[in-house]
Task: structure prediction
Amino acid sequence: MAQRQSGKLLLRRAASLAQQLLQQQQHVTGCTAAAATQCRTFSSKPLWASPCPHGPPAFAFDIDGVLVRGKHVLPWALEAMKKLTTPGGQWRYPVVFMTNGGGVTEGRKAEQLSNWLGVPVAPEQVILAHTPMRDLVPELAQRPVLVSGRGDVLQVARSYGFQRVLHTRELAAALPTAAPFAKYPLQAAGTERGSSTPAVASAAPDASDTAGTAPFASPARAGAAPAPATHGSAAHPCPVRDLGLATEAAPIDTILVMTDPDDWYRDSQLLYDVLTGAGVPTRSPASAAAAGAPPVKLIFSNPDLLWANEFPRSRFGQGAFAHMLLSIYSRLTAGARPHHVTYYGKPNPQPYRLAERLLLSQAQQLGLHLPQVAPGELPFSGIYAVGDNPAADVRGANQAGGPWVSVLVRTGVFQGPGPNCDVDTARVAVDDVAAAVDAALHHTRNLRWHSMR
Ligand SMILES: [Mg+2]
Result:
């Protein structure tokens, strides 16, 4: 009798434990009704098995709202970097800086981070929103590509290897009646053709993740003449009139929205024209259909609706622009949607897959002892993704699976209520990035201690 009661008690405990584990799993993945669809979307993506407890930790830091806020470096960022580097400035563990901002080259952002944080940051440690677009170069290097976005995105696209590329500013300059009220007419197109003009360098803010978010420094604001002498010259040929891009001779194949556009009016108008004209903004949809022209692919570098700076409330991000453009498109095409729309940037998988490659390469360069793992697995005890935006940073890390561990801080977008987000729930929620590193290193030590015991 006593044995039977003991057995029932064990069964009840086992059932209770299973229920707790199930609740924890639901809690960890954030699979509430609101997030379930997104989670299912990722179920077909590569998944890594259980974390590797003997491996070193690795880190992926968001920038704005975690390390900086607007123009100010957060004090906890300096503290966190000290914990991750030797007195000589060497990294103890693999680290990447992964942001949905952009508009500069990875090298320029690495310089900024080095100056802000007082540690040596290499370009290979930087993943901007548009960095995964490099993987498109083998397919698109020779195809006409239209880029949109503030900052130095045209130069960035060229640095990746896109060779037949033009900016929406150049398209507006070539077709002045297409966007007659554009705030930034021809100057930027002329200056941006140069590789490193001072105007471009100073007008290369990181659209949503920098301590230098000055507005685009167009001479038009100072009342300069609208047409630069260099536009369309032999030295700087017009990509439309002289090179034939965005014409029937060379229709736009792909639109890359690399950062938030500096002029939503101009870019929403021109992107709509290019999309409905099948790569040729002057062509009507009917003519495009009659010609059998293939649809244009549209790729946004990040889906963020909001971002945070010094202003007391969050600001509109690229996701807001995307919503506006697609809403206009739908209203004007009887509810249709462009054929190919893709979003890069957190929480989507591209930056996480790239981060894994870069972190593994760093671990090897640092000479860390990496345990043997099965193919497809990663030799890290955890990749700690520290971010302030639940919908981007937390959701992305939770969906990335495998060794990724989401860590939410309260120095940016997320301000509560409560210590954690109810919808996109982080594995760890702390006050700031220094506490995040403490928690990660504590977790790592415990894993090792258990493995040695
Ligand atoms: Mg952020």
Notes: The CA atoms of residues 184 and 326 lie 23 Å apart. Confidence is low (pLDDT under 50) at residues 1-50, 187-205, 207-230, 449-453.
